[in-house]
Amino acid sequence: MPTDIMPKAATIRYSHRPKPFAAELELELTAHELIATRGRSIQRFPLTAIERVNLRFSPRNTAHRAFACSVRATDGKSVTFDSLSWKSLIETEKQNDDYTRFVTALCARAEQARPQVELVAGVPAWKFWGMLVAGLATLAALFAMAIYSLIDRSWFAAGLAVALFGYLGFWMRDYLTRNRPARFQAGAMPPPVLP
C-alpha cells in the first residue's frame, strides 16, 4: 500500500443563529467543500473555487463582541458567519472556541486546495482609513467641546464630552487595531481577528 496517500480530512461542523429568531446557519467543512445550509437553502463551495476568506473583528456593541468570517467563491456566491449565536431577543452565546477551530481548518483546507486563495484579515483599506479620519475628527470635536464647556463652567456638558471622548477613543482603538487590513497564510492565523 502506498505511503503517500493522505488520510481523508475529518468533516468539521459549525452552526450559529445570526439574528434573533432567524433560521440557524449550519456549516459543514469536508475534505473537498464547504456546505452552508440555512432552512431549505443549501450552498456548496468547492474548496478549489474559494477565492477569498476574510476574517474581521465585528462587534455588535460593547456587550456583544463578535468575530466574523466571509467566504467568497469564484462564481460570486458568498456566505458570512460569526462567533456569536443568538438564542433569543436578548440572550446570546459566544462560540469562540468552535468558531476559531472552524475558521482555522477552513483557511488551511482552502489554501491547500487553491494556493492562490486570498486570506485577508480586517476591513478594506478605504474603510479603515475613512473610519480613522472620521474617528479622529469626532474625538477632536469632543475634546474641543470639553475645553469650551470647562471655560464656560458648564460642568455637566464637560463631563459628558470627556465620558464620550473616553468611550469612543477606547472603542475606536480596539476596533481599528484589530481590523488593520492585512493578508496572512493559514499557518499564521492573525490573533487580532480571532476570539
Q: How is the topology of this model organized?
A:
Layout: E1 12-16, E2 25-29, E3 33-38, E4 41-46, E5 50-57, E6 67-73, E7 78-82, E8 84-86, E9 92-94, H1 96-113, E10 118-121, H2 125-151, H3 155-178, E11 182-183
Parallel strand pairs: 5-10
Antiparallel strand pairs: 1-2, 2-3, 3-4, 5-6, 6-7, 8-9, 10-11
Helix pairs in contact: 2-3
Textual characterization of the structure:
The protein has 195 residues and is an alpha+beta fold. The chain folds into 2 domains: 12-123 and 182-193, PH-domain like (Roll); 125-174. 35% of the residues lie in helices and 28% in strands. It contains 3 helices and 11 strands, in the order βββββββββαβααβ. The chain has helices at residues 96-113, 125-151, 155-178, and strands at 12-16, 25-29, 33-38, 41-46, 50-57, 67-73, 78-82, 84-86, 92-94, 118-121, 182-183. The chain has a 5-stranded mixed β-sheet with strand order 7-6-5-10-11, with helices on one face. A 4-stranded antiparallel β-sheet has the order 1-2-3-4, covered by helices on one side. The longest helix has 27 residues, at 125-151.
